[in-house]
Amino acid sequence: MRHPIARALARPLILAAVAAAIPLASAAPVAADSIVVGGFPVDVSKAPWTVALSSRDRFGGTRAGQFCGGVAVAPTTVLTAAHCMGEDVLGAPPEQVSDFRVIAGRTDLLSDQGAEIAIREVWVNPGYDPQSNAGDFAVLTLAEPLPQDAVIAMSAAGDPAYEPGTRATVYGWGDVTGGGDYVRRLRAAYVHVMSDARCGEAYPGGGDGTFLADSMLCAGEERGGRDACQGDSGGPLVARGKLVGLVSWGSGCGRAGQPGVYTRVSEVMRTLDWDGRNAADGRHGTA
Ligand code: ARG
C-alpha cells in the first residue's frame, strides 16, 4: 500500500489538471456544513495570518494558483509545510517557480482583495524526513512586509494550548469532501487537540503512517467529520489564540479514529531558536 503522505502529495497535481479542464469546478457550491471537511466559511479578517501559497504557472489560474496554506508569524516570515516545497508538489525546486507568491488578506481567491507578495527566500527544515513526514515545516521570507497585526504568536512547549481536549481551529482553502472539491473562499473547522497516546493508537505505523510525538500533534474529533484535507497543508491550527500546528498529513479526511496530523509548532520554535524578540522583526536563528 502506498504511504498516505505519498497519496496526499499526489493530489495537488491532480487538482491542477481537473481545475484546468473544468474551470467552474472550484466555484461549485459546497454544502454549508462541509470544510476544510466539516467546517464553515470565514472571512480572512478573522484570521489575517492565514495565507495562501500560489503559483498560477504550476497550478493554473482558476483558483489563483493556490496549492497550500501558510501562516505569518512575523511581518516577513511565513511558515508552511516542508512537503509543500517538494518536487512532488511543485514539479520543480521552489526557486525555479518564478511566480511563487504568498496571497495575504484575501478571503475569495478570485477577488483582488489583499496582496500578492513575492518570496525572497525559501528555507526548508533540513531535519524534514519525507518518509515519516517528521519536521514538516519550511520558512518563507517575504519580499515585502505584512502589517504587524497580520501575524500570530507561536505557542511554546508547555503552553496549555497543547493540552488534550483544547478546542482548536484549522483554516484553509483545501478540499471540503475528500473528493477533490477545492474551494474558492477561506474556510475554518473546529477540532480538538488529541493526546499523544490516542494519536499513537490511530497511527501506530504501517499503511496509515506513524505518529511521532516529538514533531507532530494530532487534532480532530473522535467521531470524525471535522478535519483539514488536501490543499490545506502548511496552514494554521490555532488554539487559545496562538499557533500550535501546521496542517501536515492524515489518512483520508475527517474519518473517525483518523485525526489530522499537524507539525508541532513548539518544535518549529525550538529548531528555529525562536523567541519573543526575533518574532518582532522576522529574524530567526537558522535561516
Ligand atoms: N497533505 C495534505 C496537503 O498537502 C494535507 C492533508 C491533511 N489531512 C488531514 N486529514 N488532516 O494538503
Automatic annotation (TrEMBL):
Stored Pfam families: Trypsin
The terms under GO molecular function for this entry are: peptidase activity
Q: What GO biological process terms are annotated to this protein in UniProt?
A: proteolysis
- What's in the keyword line of the UniProt record? Disulfide bond, Hydrolase, Protease, Serine protease, Signal
Q: Span of the secretion signal?
A: 1-27
User: Domain of life here?
Assistant: Bacteria
Peptidase S1 domain residues are 36-280
What PANTHER family does the entry give?
A: FI18310P1-RELATED, POLYSERASE-RELATED
What's this protein's family per the entry?
Belongs to the peptidase S1 family.
Specify the protein name. Answer: Serine protease
**Provenance organism:** Streptomyces doebereineriae
